[in-house]
């Protein structure tokens, strides 16, 4: 199942994607579960699919304004330095444990949103990533059971303001400018992705390929991440884990290359869609 969040007539809602149209669940279902996070928290994905198919309302995508596919995760945990190619280009050593940082909800953006570069920085960089969404909560989840806790997958662009990222050893400022983490366009449920390691990630800027990697290249794979993260914090339905970016970021090119106003950046992952955003400049 492919799911999408959007605004319709100014109100946030969601739907099941069917070919070139959306099937919005009926009003009684929406009353019980106002967003996709609520659906996940109730374990109601199968009920959503059935309700949308039986009594759903057809919505044309052109009538909607996209939202981040999970607009309101309780936790949004990002993994850094999780591809050998990215570790090599940053000239960092290997790590025994995953490198983690947090994003705030107001940093999330939607497919086709304009991402605003802060006017006081010229170092806006792309980072295409696979994000996973938790469907079943838990603590101390063994890696052998990790996939049972995943609802599905989506594209993410973990856009970074590099100078602010490097003010200190902590990543937080450069990773938390408002609206700098496009997330979507869809959530594709786990049953539609039989082997996530077979997916390919590609990031393009103005049509030029900047990153291209297999998800199988992750240093700390998805089961390891779920086990490690759930050891220190409980994971809840609707939480998001961004799994890291491969080599090819602009900051490590010779010479460095950053995004500027008018650029179009795309993150595509096999079967998960194309996440597209234009770059603007904040006032």
What does this structure look like?
With 283 residues, the chain is an alpha+beta fold. It has 2 domains: 2-66, no CATH class; 76-281, Alpha-Beta Complex (Fumarylacetoacetate hydrolase, domain 2), CATH 3.90.850.10. It is 16% helix and 35% strand. It contains 6 helices and 19 strands. It has helices at 27-32, 36-41, 45-55, 84-90, 162-165, 222-232; strands at residues 2-8, 11-18, 21-24, 57-59, 64-66, 76-80, 99-102, 108-109, 114-117, 124-125, 128-134, 150-157, 160-161, 181-189, 200-205, 208-214, 240-242, 264-269, 273-281. Strands 1, 2, 3, 4, 5, 6, 7, 8, 11, 12, 14 and 17 form a 12-stranded mixed beta sheet that branches. It has a 5-stranded mixed beta sheet with strand order 9-19-18-15-16, with no helix packed on it. The protein has a two-stranded antiparallel sheet with strand order 10-13. The radius of gyration is 18 Å and the shape is globular. The chain starts with a strand and ends with a strand. The model has no long low-confidence stretch (mean pLDDT 97).
């Amino acid at each position: 199942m492919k799911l999408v969040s959007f605004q319709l007539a100014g109100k946030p809602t969601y739907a099941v994607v069917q070919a070139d149209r959306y099937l919005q669940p009926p009003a009684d279902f929406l009353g019980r579960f106002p967003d996709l996070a609520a659906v996940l928290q109730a374990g109601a994905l199968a009920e959503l699919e059935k309700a949308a198919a039986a009594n759903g309302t057809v919505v044309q995508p052109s009538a909607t304004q996209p939202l981040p596919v999970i607009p309101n995760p309780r936790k949004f945990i990002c993994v850094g330095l999780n591809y050998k190619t990215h570790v090599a280009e940053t000239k960092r050593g290997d790590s025994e444990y995953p490198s983690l940082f947090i994003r705030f909800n107001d940093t999330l953006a939607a497919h086709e949103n304009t991402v605003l570069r802060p006017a006081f920085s010229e170092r806006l960089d792309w980072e295409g990533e696979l994000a996973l969404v938790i469907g079943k909560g838990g603590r101390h989840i063994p890696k052998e059971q990790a996939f049972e806790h995943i609802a599905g997958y989506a594209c993410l662009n973990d856009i970074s303001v590099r100078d602010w990222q490097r003010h200190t050893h902590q990543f937080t400022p450069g990773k938390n400018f408002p609206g700098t983490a496009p997330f979507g366009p869809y959530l594709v449920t786990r049953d539609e992705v039989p082997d996530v390691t077979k997916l390919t990630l590609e990031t393009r800027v103005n049509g030029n390929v900047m990153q291209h990697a297999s998800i199988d290249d992750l240093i700390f794979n998805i089961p390891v991440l779920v086990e490690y993260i759930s050891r220190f914090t409980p994971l809840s339905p609707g939480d998001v884990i961004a799994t890291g970016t491969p080599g090819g970021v602009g900051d490590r090119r010779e010479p460095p290359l950053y995004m500027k106003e008018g650029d179009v950046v795309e993150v595509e992952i096999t079967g998960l869609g194309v996440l597209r955003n234009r770059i603007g400049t904040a006032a």
